[in-house]
Design brief:
- The protein is built from 23 helices and 17 strands.
- With 577 residues, it is an alpha+beta fold.
- It folds into 5 domains: 108 residues, no CATH class; 55 residues, no CATH class; 76 residues; 108 residues, no CATH class; 95 residues, no CATH class.
- It has a 3-stranded antiparallel β-sheet. The chain has a 3-stranded antiparallel β-sheet with strand order 6-8-7.
- A hairpin with a 5-residue loop joins strand 1 and strand 2.
- 24% of the residues are buried.
C-alpha cells in the first residue's frame, strides 16, 4: 500500500514516490545504495524509510523555502509537500519559474540531505617518550583510536619517521590479525551431522556458534552444508520458478531449511542481511511474486508430503504394536492426501481403469499393496478414485516419491525414483525412443545397484577364508574381493570420513566394496565401476547401519526385497472391474 501524508482539511493523499534522475552508467551504484526500479514509470526511486543523503546528486527535486501563510499559493502553483524533508518542492516536469521567489534561499530541509565529506586522518606510530615532540609539531590525539594523527591542513613532512613506523606496524598487525567472520565460509550443519563435518576438516566458531571451512581446506566436500552455496542455489531456482520441482524429493529438514532461506530474503531491500550477501535485482516485483509462490508450494504441498514420508519411516522402524507411530502416520497421510495409507504398505501403487460396456475407462482407482495380507484377504487397499488418467498417474507418482523418501537405504530410494522418472518419460508424448530407452536403462542401473548389495555372499565367521557354501560364480566373486581387500582399503582411507573408522570395520567394508565391483563384471546391465565405487563409498559414510546390513543374514530373495521397484516392471493394461 502506498504511504499517506496529511493535507489541509484532515484528508490523506497517497505519498508519491521519490523518483531520481540516474544516468544509465550509474544505475548499479544507485541500486547498491538501495534504490528500487519502477517499471511503469521507468525510473529509479528511493523506497520509504531509506536514507536520502546518498542519492542527493540524482535528486531532481527543487526544494522551496515557503512561509506557512503562503503554502496554499505554492500548492496551487503545483508544489508538493515532502513529509520526510518537511519542505515544499517543485515536482519533476513542473516549470520552476513561478517558484523563483521561494528558491532564493536554500532551505535547510534540502541542505540537511547533502552528505558531509568525511575527514581522512593520517595516523602516526609514536613511541611514548616522543609524544611531546609530535604534539609540538601539530599532531592531535584521537581518544577513540588511541593514536596521534595529523590534522587537515598541517604539513605531513615533519612526521615522516612516525608515518613509516605506522605503516610497518599496520602491515604487521594485519598479517597477525585473524580473519574476520565475514571472510569465513560458514556451514549450516545439522547437529546429527556434526561429526561428519568435523571429520572432513570443519572447525567450530564458538562466537558465531557455527561450523566453518578453515583456510586452505577444499570446500567441495562441504557443498551440502555451505550456506552461501545453498542461498545461491535457492535464489536461482526461485528466479527461474523451479524451486518446487527441485525439492520434490527433499526431506522435511531440507524443506524447512529452504523455507528459512526464503523468509530471510524478505523484505526486499539492501538493508536485509540476505541482500547484503547477494545482488538485489533492479525490478523486485517478479522476484517477490516468485518467493511467495515458492513458499505457498512448499507449505501446502512439499512439506506435508515430506511429513508423510518421515512418519512412514518412523512407523517402519517402530514396533508393530506402537499405536503412537500408527496414529502419527495416519494423521500425516490424512492431512496431506485426504486418505489413509495401510500401515504395512510396501510402497507399490497400482492404477486400475474401471470400465462398463465401453472400452475406455470412465474412472481410475488407485490401490496400495499391503505387505501382510493373510490368505483370502485382498492384497491391495483402495485409496482414491478420479475420472482423469493424468491425475491418477500424478497421484501415483506422488505416492511413490513419498515411499522413496521414507527409505533409509539410498540405493532402494534411487531405484524407486528412477521408476517414477521412467514412467514420466513414457507418458510424455514428446519423448523420443532414445529418451525412453535411456530412462529404462537408468532405472535398471539403479535397481542393479540394489541387487549388487543385497546379493552379496552370506556372512561367515572367517570372512576371507575359502567358501564352500557358494556356487561357482559366487566363489569367484568372493575370491576376487578377498584378493582386492588391500587395494579397496587404500581407496576407502582416502575419504576423511572413513579413514578414522576402526581397522576391522574398514577391512570388512573393503571386502564388500570388492564384492560390489566384481558383480559389475558379470551383470547383464552393469553400470560403470567408478559409479558403483562412488555409490558404495557414499553409503558407507552416510548410513551408520550400512556395514551391519551387509553382514547380516538375509532370508528373503532380491525380488522380494525390491518389490516396490520391480512391481511395476511390466505394467499390465488397465483392468476392468
Amino acid at each position: 500500500m502506498p504511504a499517506t501524508t496529511g493535507t489541509s482539511g484532515g484528508r490523506s493523499t497517497p505519498q508519491e514516490k521519490h523518483f531520481l534522475d540516474v544516468p544509465f552508467k550509474e544505475r548499479d551504484e544507485a541500486h547498491k545504495l538501495g534504490a528500487h526500479w519502477d517499471k511503469e514509470a521507468k525510473s529509479w526511486f528511493i523506497p520509504e524509510g531509506v536514507d536520502r543523503a546518498p542519492f542527493s546528486r540524482w535528486d531532481p527535486r527543487v526544494y522551496l523555502d515557503v512561509p506557512f501563510k503562503e503554502k496554499d499559493e505554492a500548492r496551487q502553483l503545483g508544489a508538493h509537500w515532502d513529509k520526510e524533508a518537511k519542505s515544499w518542492y517543485v515536482p519533476k516536469g513542473v516549470d520552476a519559474v513561478p517558484f523563483s521567489r521561494w528558491t532564493n534561499q536554500a532551505p535547510e530541509a534540502a541542505q540537511q540531505h547533502e552528505p558531509k565529506p568525511k575527514e581522512v586522518r593520517v595516523y602516526l606510530d609514536v613511541p611514548y617518550p616522543e609524544r611531546s615532540e609530535v604534539q609540538k609539531l601539530g599532531a592531535n590525539w584521537d581518544w577513540k583510536a588511541k593514536s596521534w594523527y595529523i590534522p587537515e591542513g598541517v604539513d605531513a613532512a615533519p612526521f615522516s619517521q612516525w608515518m613509516k613506523q605506522a605503516a610497518e606496524a599496520s602491515h604487521q598487525a594485519q598479517a597477525a590479525e585473524p580473519k574476520s567472520n565475514a571472510a569465513r565460509i560458514f556451514l549450516n550443519v545439522p547437529f546429527k551431522e556434526k561429526d561428519e563435518a568435523h571429520a572432513l576438516g570443519a572447525h567450530w566458531d564458538k562466537e558465531a556458534k557455527s561450523w566453518y571451512i578453515p583456510e586452505g581446506v577444499d570446500a567441495a566436500p562441504f557443498s551440502r552444508w555451505n550456506q552461501h552455496v545453498l542461498e545461491v542455489g535457492i535464489l536461482k531456482a526461485v528466479e527461474q520458478g523451479t524451486l518446487g520441482d527441485a525439492l520434490e524429493t527433499a526431506n522435511l529438514e531440507q524443506i524447512d531449511r529452504t523455507l528459512d532461506v526464503l523468509y530471510s530474503m524478505t523484505p526486499l531491500n539492501t538493508g536485509t542481511e540476505f541482500w547484503k550477501r547477494h545482488e538485489l535485482p533492479w525490478d523486485v516485483d517478479p522476484l517477490e511474486k516468485n518467493i511467495q509462490t515458492a513458499m505457498n508450494d512448499l507449505i501446502e504441498n512439499r512439506r506435508p508430503d515430506a511429513a508423510v514420508a518421515l512418519a512412514f519411516q518412523k512407523l517402519q522402524a517402530a514396533d508393530k504394536t506402537d499405536e503412537a507411530a500408527r496414529h502419527y502416520f495416519d494423521t500425516a497421510a490424512d492431512n496431506a492426501l485426504d486418505f489413509k495409507l495401510p500401515h504395512d504398505w510396501t510402497g507399490e501403487i497400482r492404477v486400475v481403469g474401471v470400465t462398463d460396456h465401453h472400452l475406455e475407462p470412465y474412472e481410475y482407482h488407485l490401490y496400495a499393496r499391503k505387505g501382510e495380507a493373510q490368505f483370502g484377504e485382498d492384497a491391495y487397499a483402495f485409496l482414491a478414485s478420479t475420472p482423469w488418467k493424468e491425475e491418477a498417474d500424478k497421484l501415483a507418482d506422488r505416492l511413490t516419491i513419498i515411499a522413496a523418501n521414507s527409505r533409509t537405504d539410498e540405493t532402494e530410494r534411487s531405484a524407486l525414483l528412477a521408476r517414477v522418472q521412467e514412467d514420466r518419460v513414457r507418458r510424455d508424448p514428446n519423448s523420443s525412443e532414445d529418451a525412453i530407452s535411456a530412462a529404462k536403462e537408468a532405472r535398471k542401473t539403479a535397481e542393479f545397484a540394489v541387487s549388487s548389495i543385497d546379493d552379496g555372499p552370506k556372512q561367515d565367521h572367517q570372512i576371507y577364508a575359502p567358501r564352500h557354501d557358494l556356487d561357482k560364480n559366487q566363489a569367484a566373486i568372493h575370491a576376487a574381493a578377498t584378493a582386492n581387500v588391500a587395494a579397496n582399503l587404500e581407496e576407502l582411507k582416502k575419504n576423511p570420513a572413513l579413514a578414522k573408522r576402526p581397522a576391522g570395520e574398514l577391512e570388512k567394508l573393503a571386502y564388500w566394496r570388492g564384492v560390489a565391483l566384481e558383480r559389475t563384471k558379470t551383470a547383464e546391465y552393469a553400470p560403470a565401476e567408478s559409479w558403483v565405487a562412488a555409490r558404495f563409498d557414499h553409503e558407507a559414510v552416510v548410513n551408520p547401519c550400512f556395514l551391519e546390513r551387509l553382514e547380516q543374514m538375509r532370508s528373503e530373495s532380491t525380488q522380494g526385497r525390491t518389490a516396490p521397484a520391480h512391481a511395476r516392471e511390466d505394467r499390465q493394461p488397465e483392468l476392468s472391474r
